[in-house]
Amino acid sequence: MNRELLVSPDVALLEAMDRLTRGSAKIVFVVDTDDVLVGTLTDGDIRRAILAGHELSGSIRGAYNPDPACVRQGGYTPRELRQLFQERYVDVVPIVDAAHRVVDHVTWHEAFEEPPDAGDIAGVPVVIMAGGMGTRLQPFTHVLPKPLLPIDGKPVIDHIMDRFRAAGATEFCLTLNHKARILRAYLEDAPDPEGVTFVQEASPLGTAGPLRLLAGRFTAPVVVTNCDVLVSIDYRALLDFHAKSRCDLTLVASVRSFRLPYGTCDIAADGTLQGIEEKQELTRLVNTGLYVIDPGLFPGIPADRHYDMNTFIDDLKASGRRVAVFPVSAEAWVDVGQWDEYQQATRLLGRVADRAPGATPAARALLPRQKQ
């Protein structure tokens, strides 16, 4: 039994998120000190807890499922196992011994002898916002468009598209501006140029403005991503979450912790100092630059002017539209548009360092997953 799949009820929600991200089972089993099963925790449980206001630094108590489906070791038939999966509608079932200790687990695909899927999103268009100047990566972006900067001998844009293709996506639309001819020539000369189309900005339109150029083009929700982010998630789960939330826009947000290098002052109403907290660590959910958006919103985006995604979201909320947040762990996201993250990703994917000490969790997310 892989001990990484076993957690205490007192483990922090943030640590549980990291465990789920690192593992392939997409579940952890909550056990007591004797490994007796007391619950299960999935990424869906974590998302619901975060959206309900559960503290990331708090324990998983109240977040995990205290009544999980399970089977007794040697005490079930394949037919009974399949029936349990169908009745409880779960993806993984723990196997326990006579003392109810977790000894193994079985997946839906193993029970039904089906090959695992990658979260199929066939037929879902992917819009890549590829027209930015890449100012954070200058002077390199004076020569190349940001999507063509290489990581491990392959441009960032290929890493992004390969991840979506692995999940079943076949339709890509790129919005272009800065050094558009170079990027367009590269993609048109690619081994598999089919399914890739382009929309040209006449002038820089920001991170949301180019979507106005796509008004009337799509009828179902589309995935929209910046061209400098890599997010390791189940895209099908993201789209299902968007549909069930009945929202107009879903934003993927990653957990990030920031340590202030200074002491922070706690001041009373009369101006006197109550105390100083040294090097406070703040944990927040931050925007990754990956979204699911209903295309009916595109005609409402101002035409022919710079318009950023933050302004778009604020305007949606002000008009009564629903915006949802899909939380992911820190290790699920890397922003290669930042110089330090770009360097980390280049070293890690290039195997210059093997999970180098000091590497950020986001950069480690680029490494191939290890089998459990």
Notable characteristics:
Spore Coat Polysaccharide Biosynthesis Protein SpsA, Chain A; seven-stranded mixed beta sheet; 10 helices; 372 residues; CBS-domain; alpha/beta
Helix and strand run: EHEEHEHEEHEEEHEHEEEHEEEEHEEHH
Number of strands: 19
Give the number of helices: 10
Give the CATH H-level superfamily of the largest domain. Spore Coat Polysaccharide Biosynthesis Protein SpsA, Chain A
Task: Summarize the biggest pleated sheet.
Answer: 7 strands, mixed
Would you tell me the structural class of the helices and strands? alpha/beta
Number of domains: 2
List the helices and strands and how they pair.
Blueprint lengths: L5 E2 L5 H10 L4 E5 L5 E6 H9 L19 E2 L5 H11 L3 E5 L5 E6 H5 L13 E4 L20 E2 L2 E2 H11 L5 E5 L3 H9 L7 E5 L21 E5 L2 E3 L3 H11 L3 E11 L4 E4 L5 E5 L3 E13 L15 H10 L4 E6 L4 E3 L3 H11 L11 H4 L8
Parallel strand pairs: 1-2, 4-5, 7-10, 7-12, 10-11, 14-18
Antiparallel strand pairs: 2-3, 5-6, 8-9, 12-17, 13-19, 14-17, 15-16
Descriptive report:
This protein is of the alpha/beta class and 372 residues long. It has two domains: 3-112, CBS-domain, CATH 3.10.580.10; 126-364, Spore Coat Polysaccharide Biosynthesis Protein SpsA, Chain A. Helix content is 24%, strand content 25%. It has ten helices and 19 strands. The strands form six sheets. A seven-stranded mixed β-sheet has the order 11-10-7-12-17-14-18, sandwiched between helices. A three-stranded mixed β-sheet has the order 1-2-3. It has a three-stranded mixed β-sheet with strand order 4-5-6.
